[in-house]
Design goal:
Layout: E1 3-5, E2 8-13, H1 15-21, E3 30-32, H2 40-47, H3 51-62, H4 68-78, H5 81-84, E4 92-94, E5 99-103, H6 113-117, H7 120-130, E6 136-142, H8 146-155, E7 161-168, H9 174-181, E8 188-194, H10 197-208, H11 211-219, E9 222-226, H12 232-251, E10 261-266, H13 271-281, E11 286-293, H14 298-305, E12 307-309, H15 330-337, H16 342-355, E13 357-359, H17 362-369, E14 372-376, H18 379-393, H19 399-415, E15 421-425, H20 433-441, H21 451-462, H22 468-471, E16 483-485, H23 489-497
Parallel strand pairs: 5-15, 6-7, 6-9, 7-8, 8-16, 10-11, 10-15, 11-14
Antiparallel strand pairs: 1-2, 1-3, 4-5, 12-13
The structure holds pyridoxal-5'-phosphate (PLP).
Length: about 500
């Protein structure tokens, strides 16, 4: 299997090289030249084995340059009961007659990013060995909150790597910030950027595409790579859990093998839902993909109108990991919908940079509309949804998951589509405890309580145990308290590396 770039089809590299580089040198995103297929027979086999075996089989279809032993090393080291609470790894919980919650947050940092970031460092170190890499790989991350911590935890003290994470100073929850600024490890650094997530992400992208700076790094023995979902190594492990969820639906008697499902995903950078799209393209029987946004509903508008327009207000919401206006991974979907027309993708992306806006041809909008629906849910409705499903089903979900549940309930009511549906649950309710408790008990219940009193209260209300990785934050020293302007991000990196 070879990989090419959304902005230059003449590029053709192995998965090891695509994962090591992160972003293609002309700024495009790597993606597979063809999409491997799975049959109903394959699905029946996968349904009879556990998560690790499912993962190995599906990853092997994409990472064809990895040996059997290398895949074992990656999969068996990442998806352990120790890291994910149990061997289920990504359990599926039925909610009502059609809705099923796919819990993707049982990993070490309590958000779905762990599903990819526990395995990405293993892919990367394997890729470095395979390609004879001598430089130290420097992972640069822009985070809207959850990626940063998951990447720090995944890469901490991984030999041959260093990691620097930038987060928007005012854009993350208190727990998220504490998780990052107390990070352990000798190869890690964290900086707050004065700006929002898009500023941080653009800053990182600028560093990546600065050729001169790349030379300077190389002289110092460093090469950049990315742990953001622009890296194919982030995307591919996410395909696994949608296929795994389908297997679990069969095993739980929710569908028969071959029966269609819908998949609804709370979306920010468009990585998670893009993985569901690839699962569908592989032959997983998927009826519709439902893209759920919060008040930053640029994707809802795009999917419904074909106009992608960033010239709009940016909202800080209670689902901060989805507070994004520039969804990077959409570029991969555009490439697919444009039948691999790299020139057309370059044109749209240039328009985005120049005008903060682009419009796709009607044919692309129609193709998209044939399998994808979209909806949005503001903070008031998100809180209402958390309260309602707690009352109705005794199930507590976090704010991001609630956005998806809310959008799904609207979709089902408006369309009458009763296809069994998998809803991606992307974070533990404990990670966004203040908003979750505020929704269930009212804002007055939060008064005078610090983060850790809220965790304890959340245990009472949900009947669940708070993850130790969150309760222990109370006693960990703050290691990283520096803030920088977005134009100083490069200097920050230089400072960390001593170049
Ligand atoms: C990252 C994140 C999202 C958005 O996922 P994308 O792949 O960026 O679309 C949603 N919810 C949570 C909790 C997240 O951490």
């Amino acid at each position: 299997m070879k990989y090419t770039s959304t902005r230059d089809r003449s590029i053709s590299v192995d998965s090891a090289s695509a994962i090591k580089q992160g972003l293609s040198k002309e700024g495009g995103l790597f993606l597979p030249r063809s999409i491997p297929q799975i049959s109903a027979g394959d699905i029946a086999e996968l349904a009879s084995v556990g998560y690790r075996a499912r993962a190995k089989r599906i990853l092997g279809l994409y990472l064809t340059d990895f040996t059997d032993e290398e895949l074992d090393y990656c999969v068996n080291g990442a998806y352990t009961a120790e890291h994910f609470g149990s061997d289920a790894i990504a359990p599926l919980v039925p909610l009502d007659e059609t809705a099923n919650i796919l819990e993707l947050w049982h990993g070490p940092t309590c958000a779905f990013k762990d599903m990819a970031l526990q395995i990405l460092p293993r892919f990367l170190t394997t890729a470095m060995k395979k390609t004879g890499e001598k430089s130290t790989i420097v992972i640069l991350v822009a985070t809207s909150g959850d990626t940063g911590k998951a990447a720090l935890e995944g890469f901490r003290d991984v030999e041959g790597t260093k990691i620097t994470v930038f987060y928007p100073n005012d854009g993350v929850s208190r727990i998220q910030r504490l998780q990052m600024v107390t990070q352990r490890g000798e190869n890690v650094a964290v900086g707050a950027v004065e700006g929002n997530f898009d500023d941080a992400q653009n800053g990182v992208k600028d560093i990546f595409t600065d050729g001169e700076y790349g030379e300077r790094l190389l002289e110092g023995g460093y090469k950049l790579s990315s742990a953001n979902s622009i890296n194919w190594g982030r995307l591919v492990p996410q395909i696994v859990y949608y296929i795994s969820a389908y297997c679990d639906m069969i095993n739980q008697g929710r569908i028969k093998n071959g029966g269609k499902i819908n998949i609804c995903v709370p979306t920010g950078n468009f990585g998670n839902i893009l993985a569901a799209y690839y699962a569908k393209r592989m032959g997983l029987p998927v009826n519709r993909l439902i893209c759920a946004s919060n008040a930053n509903n640029i994707l809802t508008d795009f999917i419904n109108t074909g106009v992608y327009d960033c010239n709009r207000d940016f909202y800080t919401t209670i689902s901060p990991s989805m507070d994004i206006l520039i969804s990077s991974n959409l570029e991969r979907l555009l490439f697919e919908l444009l039948d691999g027309d790299d020139g057309a993708v370059r044109g749209l992306m240039a328009g985005l940079k120049r005008d903060k806006k682009y419009v796709v041809p009607d044919s692309v909008r129609e193709k998209l509309g044939s399998f994808m629906s979209a909806g949005c849910c503001d903070d008031i409705r998100t809180k209402q949804t958390i309260r309602e499903i707690k009352e109705k089903f005794g199930y507590t979900c976090d704010t991001h998951t609630a956005v998806a549940v809310g959008v799904y309930m609207d979709y089902r009511r408006d369309t009458g589509d009763m296809t069994p549906t998998v809803i991606a649950s992307t974070a533990s309710p404990f990670k966004f405890n203040a908003s979750v408790l505020g929704a269930i008990e009212g804002e007055q219940s939060l008064e005078g309580k610090d983060e850790f009193e809220l965790l304890a209260r959340c245990e009472k209300v949900t009947g669940m145990t708070a993850p130790v990785s969150l309760t222990e934050l109370k006693d960990l020293p703050v290691r990283f308290d520096r803030t920088c302007k977005k134009e100083d991000m490069r200097d920050f990196v230089s400072g960390v590396l001593g170049i």
